[in-house]
Design brief:
The protein is an alpha/beta fold and 371 residues long. The protein contains twelve helices and 18 strands.
Length: 371
């Protein structure tokens, strides 16, 4: 995708062939800065501090984190310790564990002398695979937008609501929820995106709006609580969100507030779709509400806000009464019954065990207990 007209990805190997460069998303939308990752600890810190975020990009960064570790010390002891360090950075997104598993499977059987080059190759492959997966999600979801557009008067846009940032900044390129939107826009289908600001951290206002603006996609930033009102008044045709982990039965874990959007969509007969790459599906889980660990992050993300003052200075200020306790649950779980369908690289399916198993029969888990 593009920044100021220049195509870029979110992560790549620097010209020195060793260092890994990432876009520092904590600086967006006020500054575009590249952060260099020199070792596995810096990669882990980038994930923890949300310099990089979004399930696919977290996985890609973790893969390159393993490569950086092998560049320093390719011993089996360091491989195991580095993987453990990376796995511990974010508990909710399953892509992280998937990427580490891929790297371990590739490297542990190799002689130490071959591990560095193999690690960089496999990490690069994971990135390329993510790009193609998300492009396929876009192609599969494009038809949903085109079907709605065909029912509208000529020139009237399809109004799509999204939550958090499931755009190309959350992946290596294209994004998940945004991929069908970008493809529709590129093909000339009129679209307009309602962008939830997505408190806390404001990933919608700071990141989704930023990338939509650079791609020239019409959009409007709204407070999180506005979505239900828009749906009641017929101003939302379709909801598409991403997900950090989806169970084998179709429960969807995503940024906090997604569940409320799904409830509003169900009450107003608005289709609610979730776009996801298959590595985001956790085939070992059946009940998302009970089984998915919900990360609780620093209260500073709720009690503080960063913005630009009139003199152009970027400042962080307190917005909560001092001394008031703050809770910061980073994710919630939307039950499968509220999800119209899942948009994957293999096609669109019902949010159910049977629906997912039909698309991914070689990975589907046997039926388990569901409460």
């Amino acid at each position: 995708m593009k920044i100021d007209g220049n195509s870029t990805r979110t992560i790549w190997v620097a010209d020195d062939g060793r260092t890994v460069d990432v876009i520092d998303q904590t600086k967006l939308p006020f500054a575009f800065e590249i952060l260099k990752l020199n070792d596995v600890e810096e990669a882990a810190a980038a994930i923890e501090r949300m310099v990089v975020r979004g399930a696919p990009l977290i996985g890609a960064t973790a893969a390159f984190g393993v490569a950086l570790a092998m560049a320093d010390d390719s011993s089996s002891e360091n491989l195991a310790a580095s993987c453990d360090r990376l796995i511990g950075t974010r508990p909710t997104a399953v892509n992280l564990r998937w990427a580490i598993s891929e790297m371990m499977s590739c490297l542990e059987r190799l002689p130490e002398a071959e591990r560095k080059d193999a690690a960089y190759r496999r990490a690069a492959e994971i990135c390329d695979e993510d790009v193609e997966i998300n492009a396929s999600i876009g192609r599969n979801g494009l038809g949903l937008i085109q079907q709605i557009a065909a029912r509208k008067p000529p020139g009237e846009p399809v109004n799509i609501l999204t939550h958090c940032n499931a755009g190309w900044l959350a992946a290596v390129d294209w994004g998940t929820a945004t991929s069908p939107i970008y493809m529709a826009h590129d093909q000339g289908t009129p679209v307009h995106v309602w962008v939830d600001e997505t408190r806390p951290r404001n990933q919608g206002a700071s990141l989704t709006a930023y990338e939509l603006g650079h791609e020239g996609v019409p959009h409007t930033v709204i407070p999180d609580n506005t979505g239900g009102h828009l749906m009641q008044h017929g101003q939302v045709d379709l909801v598409i969100t991403g997900t950090d982990r989806t169970t084998a039965t179709g429960d969807v874990c995503n940024k906090i507030g997604t569940y409320l959007k799904a409830l509003a969509a169900r009450d107003n007969d608005v289709p609610f779709y979730v776009a996801l790459p298959s590595p985001t599906i956790d085939f070992t889980l059946s009940n998302g509400v009970e089984e998915i660990p919900i990360e609780q992050r620093s209260g500073d993300e709720v009690s503080k806000m960063t913005g630009v003052s009139e003199d152009g200075t970027v400042r962080t200020v307190d917005i909560v009464s001092r001394g008031s306790p703050v809770a910061n649950y980073a994710f919630d779980v939307t039950p499968a019954r509220l999800v119209t369908g899942l948009i994957t690289e293999a096609g669109i399916c019902e949010a159910s065990r049977d629906g997912i198993a039909e698309l991914f029969p070689d990975r589907a888990a046997p039926a388990g207990r569901r409460k």
